[in-house]
Amino acid sequence: MKTLLLVFGLFLALPYCNAQETWTCYTDDNLLLVDGHQLKGVFEHSDGKIWFVTDRGIDIYDGQSWSRIDKGNKLMRKTVGAFLLDSKNQVWIGTGTPEYYTGGYTASQLYKGGLLVYDGNEWKPILTKDIGINAPIVTKIYEQSNGDIWVGVSNVSPGVEPSIASRGAILRFSEGEWTIFKSKDLLCLSCEFVKGFHEDKNGRLWLWGDKGMAYFEEGAFHPVNQDDGYEKGTNRTLFVYEDSKANFWVAGYGRVARYDGNEWTTFTKKHGVPSSNFPPSGLT
C-alpha cells in the first residue's frame, strides 16, 4: 500500500515538475564575472536593471543583455572594496588600490582611493584626498536612517590583518559636509579598520573592528569596554545582531555578549558557548 501511494504521488507530481520554469545560466561568455572577479553583492536599481557588483567592476543586466563598467572605463580603474544603494536610489561604489597590491595597475593609479556616486544619470567621482585623507581603498559604506553616509577607508584590503604600519579611518557625509574620524577619535581598539556598521532601533549607530566596538552619539564616539561589562578581551568580533526585543548581540570566538539597552552580559564556555575552536557561523 505504501509503495502504491508513493508511485501515485510521483505520478501526480510529474505535471508540476514539468511545468517549472527553466533556469538560464550566464557565464563569462555573457560578460559576467570574467577574469576571476569576486561577486560582492547584487541589487535591483530603480530602473529595473539588476546590478552585480564585483571587486573589479559592475555587470548590469537589463532583462535582455549585459553591460559592464570596469577598469576599461576611466571611472572604474581601481579595485572595488564596497558598495551601497542608498535611500535616494543613488549608487555608491568605493574603489581604490591597497599600497602593497598592484594587480595589473600602473604606479600612477595607486593611492587613489575614492567614491563613485551614480544619481541615475551620471557618475560623480570623489577622491579621498579631496575629502582630506589620502586613503588608498574604501572598505565599507553604510547609510544611517537620517541619511548620513558612513565610509570606512584604509590602506589594508578587506580580510587582510592590519599591521603596525596599517592606517584606517571613518568618514561621515552629513548635510553636504565630510567629517574624518581617526583612531584618536574612535577610542576603541582596531575600530579604524571597521568591519561593520549597525543602527539599532533607537537610532544609535554602532561600529566594530576585530577587537573593539563603539557607538556614535551626540557627535562623538563612545567605546564599549570592560567597565561597561563588555568582556571583549582579545576576542575577535565575528557577528552582530539585534533581536526583536532590541537586545544587541555580539558573537566571536568562544564568547557571546548581549546588551539589553542598559548593561552587557557576557556568555562564555562556562555558560555553554562552544569553545574558540568552533566559532559561530552567524546569528539569527
Straight-line N-to-C gap:
42 Å
In terms of DSSP E residues, the strand content is 35-45%
Number of helices: 3
Arrangement of strands in the largest sheet: 1-2-3-4
How would you classify the helix and strand content by structural class?
mainly beta
Order of helices and strands: HEEEEEEEEHEEEEHEEEEEEEE
Helix content: under 10%
List how many beta strands DSSP finds. 20
Outline the biggest β-sheet: 4 strands, antiparallel
Mean of all residue-level pLDDT scores = 79
User: Can you tell me the residue ranges where pLDDT is under 50 for at least 5 consecutive residues?
Assistant: 1-14, 99-111
Q: Can you tell me the overall shape? A: globular
Rg estimate, integer Å: 23 Å
Verbal overview:
The chain has 284 residues and is mainly beta. It has helices spanning 2-18, 128-131, 183-186; strands spanning 39-44, 50-54, 57-61, 66-70, 79-85, 91-96, 114-118, 123-127, 137-143, 149-154, 168-174, 177-181, 196-199, 205-208, 213-217, 220-223, 237-242, 248-252, 255-259, 264-267. The protein has a 4-stranded antiparallel β-sheet, with no helix packed on it. Strands 5-6-7-8 form a 4-stranded antiparallel β-sheet. Strand 1 (39-44) and strand 2 (50-54) form a beta hairpin. The longest helix has 17 residues, at 2-18. The model is unreliable at 1-14 and 99-111 (pLDDT under 50).
Any descriptors?
9% helix; disordered N terminus; 284 residues; 4-stranded antiparallel beta sheet
Q: Summarize this, please?
A:
The chain has 284 residues and is mostly beta strands. It has 3 helices and 20 strands. Strands 1-2-3-4 form a 4-stranded antiparallel beta sheet, with no helix packed on it. Strands 5-6-7-8 form a 4-stranded antiparallel beta sheet.
